[in-house]
Amino acid sequence: MKPLSRRQIAWRAAQDIGDGSYVNLGIGLPTLVADFIPEGREIVFHSENGVLGLGKAPGPNEIDPDLINAGKGPASLLPGGSFFHHTDAFLMIRGGHLDYSLLGAFEVSGEGDLANWTTEDPDYPPGVGGAMDLAAGAREVRVLCEHTTKDGQPRIRHSCTYPLTAARVVKRVYTNLAVLEIGPGGVLVREMVDGLGLAELQAKTEPKLRLAEDWKPIAAPAA
Amino acid sequence: MINKIVDGLAAAVADIRDGAVVLCAGFGAVGAPDELIDALATQGARELTVVSNNAGNGRTGLAGLIASGHVRKVICSYPRSSDSTAFDDAYKAGKIELELVPQGTISERMRCAAAGLGGFYSPVGVGTRLAEGKETREINGRLYVFEEPLQGDVALLKADRADRWGNLSYRKSARNFNPTMAMAAALSVVQVREIVPLGAIDPESVATPGIFVDRVVALGGKR
C-alpha cells in the first residue's frame, strides 16, 4: 500500500472539477491543484487576493513579484484572467458565485464540520485568513488533507477537537489514502489507494465508514 | 488647481497622530506601502491601531513599525507568515493586542464605512468563536452575524501610477486591499512607482478615482 503524494492528492481533486467551473484554491495543498487541470477542460481558479484565471506555478524565469496566490507564492495568469480588488474577491466568495472551494484542514468531522484556523497554541497566534468566508460562501466545500496527523491521529473525527471554521459544510475529502463523501448517511468511501483495506482505513478514521458499492482503487499517475 | 502630489515621504505622514487607526494595504508584501510605513515609524506616532490583512514580515514596513513599539493593536485576518517574528514576539510578550477578523469581513467592514452604511449581516463565522458576543439574526432561514463598519483615520497605500488628481492604477494582484482602504479613511496617502500627467492613465483603467486620494508620493522605479 502506497499513500498518495501531496501532488497526487491535488491531481485527484482536480479530476472531479467539471469543465466551466469557478473554483477557489485555499492555501497549502489546494494551491497545487492549479497544476493539474485535466486536458480539454477550462476551469477558472479564483484566488482570494483578487485573481481569476490562475495558471500553473510559474518557472523561475517567469516570476512576477506583483502576481501571487493565496499562499503568497508566485502565480501565473491564463489568457482570459482578470484582476480585481479584495472586496470584490470576497463578494465572489461570500455571495455564492464560486462552484467549489478547495480548502486544507486540521480536522473534519463525520458531519462535515471544518476546523482549519487555530490549534489554540497560546504562543502561536491564530490565523483565519479567508477560511471562514470560503467555508460559508462557496456552493460546495471540498477538503484536501493528509488522512492522519504527523503522530498518526485521525484528522477525520466524530467531532472536531479544534475550534470550528464552519459547521456542516464539507461534502468531500481527498486524503493521501482515500476519497470520502460526507452526506446525510455518514461517511462514504468512494476510492482507496491500492492495497488498502476498509478495516485498515477505518482504524485511521473515527466516524464509521461505509464502502460505496462501486468503490474503486485510486488511479493516480506518478506526480 | 488640484495637486495632491507631496514632496517626500516625511511630509506625507507628518500629521498622523498618536492613537490613530491606520489602514495598511497589501496582501503579504505585495501592494504594501512599506516606505510610507517606515516614514511613519520615523515620524514617531504611537499607540496606533493598524488594520491590515497580515501583521508584517521581515524587519521593514509593518514589521518594523511593530518591532519599534509604535503599534498597540492589530486588526487582521492572518498575522503569521514565514518571517513574522516582529509580531510573533510582541504577541508572545503580551505587548500587542490582536483582533482576528475573517478576511472578507475586514474588507467589507471598511467598504461599509466608505459607503456610509451602519454595518451588515454576514453568514461568515456564524457559530464560531469569532462570532461570540455579536448579534445574530435569521434572515430567510439562514443565520447571520452583525458586523460593524470599520473606518480609518488614515490609509497608507501603494499603487503603480498616479496623476496629480490622485487617480490610481495598480499592477496585477498588488491591487488587493488598496481600493477599499483608499475609500475608507479620512486621509488617504499613496506611494506610487510613477507620477504621470493628467489623462495619461486611461480612464477605463483608473481603479481608484482621485476623489478617494489625498496625497501622492512618487518613489521612482521601485515596484
Question: What does this protein structure show overall?
Answer:
The complex is a heterodimer of chains A (223) and B (223). In chain A, 48% of the residues are buried. Chain A has helices at 6-15, 86-94, 131-137, 198-203; strands at 22-25, 44-47, 51-54, 77-83, 100-103, 107-109, 114-115, 140-144, 156-157, 170-174, 178-183, 186-192, 209-217. Chain A is globular, with a radius of gyration of 17 Å. Chain A has one domain (6-217): Glutaconate Coenzyme A-transferase. In chain A, the strands form 2 sheets. In chain A, strands 4-3-2-1-5-8-10-11-12-13 form a 10-stranded mixed β-sheet. Chain A has a 3-stranded mixed β-sheet with strand order 7-6-9, with no helix packed on it. In chain A, strand 10 (170-174) and strand 11 (178-183) form a beta hairpin. Chain A is α/β, with parallel strands linked by helices and 223 residues long. Chain A has 4 helices and 13 strands. Chain A starts with 5 loop residues before the first helix and ends in a 6-residue tail after the last strand. Chain B has 223 residues and is an alpha/beta fold. Chain B has a single domain (9-102, 151-218), classed as Glutaconate Coenzyme A-transferase. Chain B has helices at residues 9-13, 34-43, 61-67, 85-92, 103-115, 178-183, and strands at residues 21-24, 48-51, 71-76, 97-100, 120-122, 136-139, 142-147, 152-162, 168-169, 185-195, 215-218. Chain B is globular and about 50 Å long. The two termini of chain B are 29 Å apart. The mean pLDDT of chain B is 96. At the A-B interface, helix 2 and helix 3 of A face helix 4, helix 5 and helix 6 of B.
